[in-house]
Automatic annotation (TrEMBL):
Entry keywords, A to Z: Membrane, Transmembrane, Transmembrane helix
Annotated GO CC locations: plasma membrane
GO molecular function: ABC-type transporter activity
Protein name: ABC transporter permease
PANTHER family: INTEGRAL MEMBRANE PROTEIN-RELATED, MEMBRANE PROTEIN
Organism for this UniProt entry: Parablautia intestinalis
Transmembrane regions: 198-217, 238-263, 296-318, 330-352, 385-406
Domain of life: Bacteria
Length: 415
């Protein structure tokens, strides 16, 4: 324990460590606030003056206008919203809301807009996937709204996974087990989750930079040569170094994630976290959770990804003889999921993104986007939902690479 404490103290004495930790905390607050700057509202007041609102004022205005839409999304409420939409557009002789006269959308459509989310997707053509205009939907069919949604996920999976009946049936079963009817509480946008993902990726990079020289720096300086020459010294020191790096990285990510979620939810309103994930993303999203649950799950999976990436970085640090080589190779593996997701073909890219340690909180290939997608990994008749595979891989990689790091450190020959 004393060696662990001294190693922890040694790492925290570094000026670079404190700069990176302070920067991570600052970015957590900044990235929680940034989505509010993209909120914009425009309307005409009673005096005929055009009013433009941005930021928190825009959020408050839309929440006030859409207050009646908040709550349980029953088929009856969705049907009433569709009928209101169709009546409004028919009265002005248009087929799309963007063709309405100025001020009409804000006055008549905006208050019911949250209830219209996913309606077109639910009634998409099962063969082509093309969604109809709301004006083309028969309101009477909405009485079986959630049955229509279940039919939609079946047809969607036939297009997404045509060669895997197992994945199709698994997806349908998952969606049937989601809690219905859904709930919606206006105010928050998906940009909040996107920026939480960016925050996680940046913290991961900072933690990797902190961990990269843990072993390789001592190889260069020879600072641990005497202790490594003792019978049990190298094992004790290796374990202490490994746990110190994991502790600092884990604590940093937990703190940054907690700050980000607290600031974001305080700005947009805590009631928004009760919104079903299907009412922010696809109406047939498979996960059975609300936005608050998604924030927590992504934070937990992000923590696992950071710990797995740091463990892998420690392994590379124990294998490399210089800090430059260990840092460069570690950063390459952090960025690899981004490159793979954009360049590798479907199944191969999915498999690689699932097993790389940094994938859990990577840009474009994170657990967040896997949860809101419909990708399954298929092998020998077994179908696994991609988020499960990514989280499971991280849980295996943390002890595996931590063990390999200590083992490589102990077997490293002195110059």
């Amino acid at each position: 324990m004393r060696i662990f404490y001294l190693e922890l103290k040694r790492v925290l004495k570094s000026k670079l460590t404190w700069i990176l930790l302070a920067l991570a905390l600052l970015l957590s607050v900044l990235l929680a606030w940034l989505p509010t700057t993209y909120c914009y509202s425009n309307y005409t007041d009673e005096a005929g003056n055009e009013v433009n609102l941005t930021g928190l004022a825009s959020i408050a205005h839309e929440k006030e206008r859409q207050a009646e839409a908040a709550g349980i999304v029953t088929p009856q409420r969705v049907r009433e919203a569709v009928e209101t939409y169709q009546t409004c557009l028919a009265s002005y002789g248009v087929t799309e809301s963007y063709d309405l006269p100025e001020g009409v959308y804000e006055r008549e459509i905006l208050p019911i807009a949250p209830l219209l989310h996913g309606v077109k997707e639910a009634f998409a053509d099962p063969d082509t996937g093309m969604a109809p205009a709301i004006m083309e939907i028969d309101p009477e069919q909405i009485d079986d709204y959630y049955s229509v949604c279940e039919s939609r996920i079946a047809s969607l999976m036939q297009m997404e996974q045509p060669d895997s009946p197992r994945a199709q049936s698994k997806a349908v079963e998952m969606y049937q087990n989601t809690k219905k009817p859904f709930e919606v509480y206006p105010g928050m946008t998906s940009a909040v989750m996107d920026y939480q993902n960016i925050m996680g990726f940046l913290v991961l990079l900072f933690c990797v930079v902190i961990a990269a020289p843990i072993f390789s720096a001592d190889y260069q300086s020879g600072a641990d040569d005497i202790l490594r020459c003792t019978r049990h010294g190298r094992v004790s020191l290796g374990i202490a170094k490994m746990f110190a790096a994991l502790f600092i990285s884990g604590a940093a990510f937990v703190l940054c994630a907690a700050v980000h979620i607290l600031v974001a939810d305080s700005l947009f309103g805590w009631e928004c976290t009760r919104t079903s994930i299907q009412m922010m993303y696809s109406i047939v999203t498979l996960a059975d959770m609300n936005i608050g649950g998604l924030q927590f799950l992504f934070a937990a999976s992000g923590l696992l990804s950071v710990l797995a990436s740091v463990s892998f970085t420690l392994f590379l640090s124990a294998r490399c003889r210089t800090t430059v080589s260990s840092l460069a190779s570690s950063l390459v593996f952090c960025i690899a999921p981004v490159v793979i997701s954009m360049t590798a073909p479907g199944a191969l890219g999915a498999w690689l993104c699932s097993i790389l340690p940094a994938s859990g909180t990577s840009i474009q290939a994170s657990v967040l986007y896997a949860i809101t997608d419909f990708q399954f990994l298929n092998l020998a008749g077994l179908s696994v939902w991609m988020p499960y595979a990514m989280i499971g891989a991280c849980m295996i990689e943390i002890p595996l690479f931590a063990f390999l790091a200590v083992r490589s450190y102990c077997r490293h020959a002195l110059n």
